[in-house]
Structure formats: structure tokens, C-alpha cells
Design goal:
245 residues, two-stranded antiparallel sheet, Farnesyl Diphosphate Synthase, globular, mainly alpha, single chain
């Protein structure tokens, strides 16, 4: 939130906005340390504890690398490819979903196959989540999201819907999008026009298809399982790709 200059999160003030940047940084450091404290205080075997610490440490590195990729993409004039975008969100967001699921598997069974399956499930779930989140950031209903129309456009975020819109638009439509993209002085009308163009290009349907593609890959990771737990995870997947906020 600090790096993105976001003042609200899910309709409420962000920590740095409410309490200041120093407090927000300290809060993040404390939570980071608490995670390792919880692991070290657990009654798990030494091998399981080592695996948990190793996976959590790698996930933290991945998130930092992904955030750096996101920052670098924003600084560059070049429009990244979809593959580059997926690599970025795979680290920035999906790594957290991955580690949450795989660590759960380590605690539950410790079976390598379970850990691998749940790791894949989490990664694909995370990618589907971020694609949907980026779609909401561009085309979401402000009454639901509590964010201004086209906020991601104004900030110049190179998210999937924006990348697809820039690459597929032509002539006047492209000019309208580029006038708002990365322009802190873009008016509400500029942003509305750009969002209207993106709607007219059918970008929402295309982005939803991409999110559904990764959701299906996540479902396949659960093919060996059955029962209520699997049903709940599939319900979670469906919610992720259909959500509007």
C-alpha cells in the first residue's frame, strides 16, 4: 500500500494512511517475525519445521522480486508481454497463495505428493485471483469497490486488462486510453472515456477467460481428492473468478 500510494483497502483507510508510514513499516516487520515465531513454537517435527521455514523464506523473496518487477514495469515505456505479466504476478501474489497451501499440506500430512498438489493449487489460485483483482481495478463498480473509476489507468499500472486494451485498440480508441494511462492529471471524464473504450473492446470477457483458465488448472491439481474439503476449495475458486470487489 505504501509503494502503491493506496489510501484505502477494501473501503477502509490503509495502515500507513491511518497511523503513518513508520507505524505501517513496523507493523509489517512484526507480522513477518510473528510468522516465524509461530512456526518455531509449534509441536511439529524438526523436518516439518525446517520445510515450513524454507518455504516461507522463499515466498518472502518471491514476493519482493515480484514487487520489484511490478515497479520496473511501471517505470519502463515498453508494454510487457502477457507472459511477463504472469511471471510478475506469479511472484508478487501467487507465491503467497502457494506457500499458504503447501505449508498447510506439510502440517496436515507431510506427504510430498500432497505438498506438490496443494502448492500447484495455491499458485494457480493466486494467479486467477490477481487477474480478477486487476480487472476490478480497471473496470469495477466504484459503489462496490470504493475506488475511483479507472484508478489503475491513472497510475499507469500495467495490469492484464490494460495491456490487452492497449495492444488491441487502434486509432482514436488507443489515443483515448493512452491519454488517461499513467497520467496523474487525467480528469474523471478522461478516465471514464478510457474505461468505456475498454468495455467496448470486450476486454472484460477476455480477461475473465484467462482467470478461468488458471482456475481450471487449480481444479486439476485437486483431481486426486474428494470430499467436503475439495468442494470448499472449488467453491473458493469459483468465488475468486466471479467476485466484483
Amino acid at each position: 500500500d505504501i509503494m502503491d500510494n493506496d489510501e484505502t483497502r477494501h473501503g477502509v483507510p490503509t495502515v500507513h494512511k491511518k497511523y503513518g508510514i513508520p507505524v505501517a513499516i513496523l507493523a509489517g516487520d512484526v507480522l513477518f517475525s510473528k510468522a516465524y515465531q509461530v512456526i518455531s513454537n509449534s509441536n511439529l517435527s524438526g523436518n516439518a519445521t525446517t520445510q515450513l521455514i524454507s518455504r516461507l523464506a522463499k515466498a518472502c523473496v518471491d514476493v519482493c522480486e515480484g514487487q520489484l518487477l511490478d515497479i520496473k514495469m511501471a517505470e519502463q515505456k515498453k508494454i510487457p508481454s502477457q507472459a511477463e505479466y504472469i511471471t510478475m504476478i506469479g511472484k508478487k501474489t501467487a507465491a503467497l497463495f502457494d506457500v499458504s497451501c503447501s505449508m498447510g499440506a506439510i502440517c496436515a500430512t507431510g506427504n510430498k505428493k500432497d505438498v506438490s498438489n496443494l502448492s500447484n493449487f495455491g499458485r494457480y489460485l493466486g494467479i486467477a485471483f490477481q487477474i480478477t483483482d486487476d480487472l476490478i481495478g480497471v473496470m469495477g463498480d466504484t459503489k462496490i469497490t470504493k475506488k475511483p473509476v479507472g484508478n489503475d489507468l491513472r497510475e499507469g499500472k500495467k495490469s492484464l486488462p490494460i495491456l490487452m486494451a492497449i495492444k488491441s485498440s487502434r486509432g482514436k480508441d488507443k489515443s483515448v486510453i493512452l491519454k488517461a494511462f499513467g497520467n496523474p492529471k487525467a480528469t474523471k471524464n478522461d478516465l471514464k472515456k478510457a474505461v468505456d473504450v475498454i468495455h467496448s473492446l470486450g476486454i472484460e470477457d477476455e480477461v475473465r477467460k484467462q482467470a478461468l483458465r488458471y482456475a481450471e488448472m487449480a481444479k486439476k491439481s485437486l483431481s486426486e481428492y474428494s470430499g467436503s474439503a475439495k468442494t470448499e476449495l472449488i467453491d473458493l475458486l469459483d468465488f475468486v473468478v466471479k467476485r466484483s470487489k
